[in-house]
Here is the input.
Amino acid sequence: MNAQRQHPGNDRYAKQILFAGIGDNGQKQLRESRVLLCGCGALGTVLADTMTRAGVGFLRIVDRDFVEMSNLQRQTLFDEDDVAAHLPKAVAATEKLARINSEVKTEPHVADIDHTNILSLVDDVDLILDGTDNFEVRFLINDAAHETGLPWIYSGVIGSHGQTMAIFPGKTGCLRCLMDTAPEPGATETCDTAGVIGPAVNVISSLASVSALKILTGQAEKVQAALTIVDVWDGTFRQMSTERLRDTSHCPACHEGERLWLSGREGSHSTILCGRNAVQVSPSIKGTVVLEELASKLRDAGEVEVNKYLLRLTLTDPDYEMTVFRDGRAIIKGTEDIAQARGIYSRYIGS
Here is the structure.
């Protein structure tokens, strides 16, 4: 009969503790740390998995979307059962992570991150991780980080290339130091035009995770002041120093306290979802939708499926699919025309 292990918790992290950069003290700091993950798609699932396996004490996951079959190629926490169950990504990820490491407290939020809720989401965390797929939310995170002084790690991937940068408000260059505003529609590649491959996601997420581990173990000074750019297909790796970026950029967020996205002056209530032929429509005033009551009203409009997280209405004439969440948001699949999507929302949900 095998002798009972005295410290099962330490067994889990034994190899990580042996690493000189973390050790016992670093592991203790990880256990006491709290992280906000904004977005749980390709980047977000790898980040969530890595943080959970590393033993971060608390992980808040915020994502507005649900799992689809096209996600499985690169979003590592999901499987076909999640697709069949129409599970929101934040919920599906939390269920998987609980089976990976029950010591980590994971808090899912099925929500769109906007200027009305971001400060409450960052209120009690030590670090913000970017797992989003759009610049509007990234600029909002940037504003919130400036407002609270929280560090955050920007990451993005398209095609076979991606980039990541750790940002320390008041100390290093920020996202607006790199670019004053979000790129105009059509000005940059998207996953619709360039696609995305899993290895690029994994590499960028891993680099971001290393920065996160340094920050959470009290070693922020070891994070390089650089924008790291990798192309896994070409095999290229380069870094752009950001050491003097804050001092030379004349950034209005850094130097003048401008918070365009946090104030709500910038940002949209409707968003085209990359690679989905879909538009998210959000009501101007948030509320709570009773999905069961809405389902009964929509039975004659098309095929209706409902669970405790969302309602899905499939229309055949015209051919659209509308997924409605409890906070009143809807994702209309079958169009990338924002005006058309708003019209469908208004017809079936109201203005």
User: Anything to note?
Assistant: The domain at 270-348 is CATH 3.30.310.10 (TATA-Binding Protein).
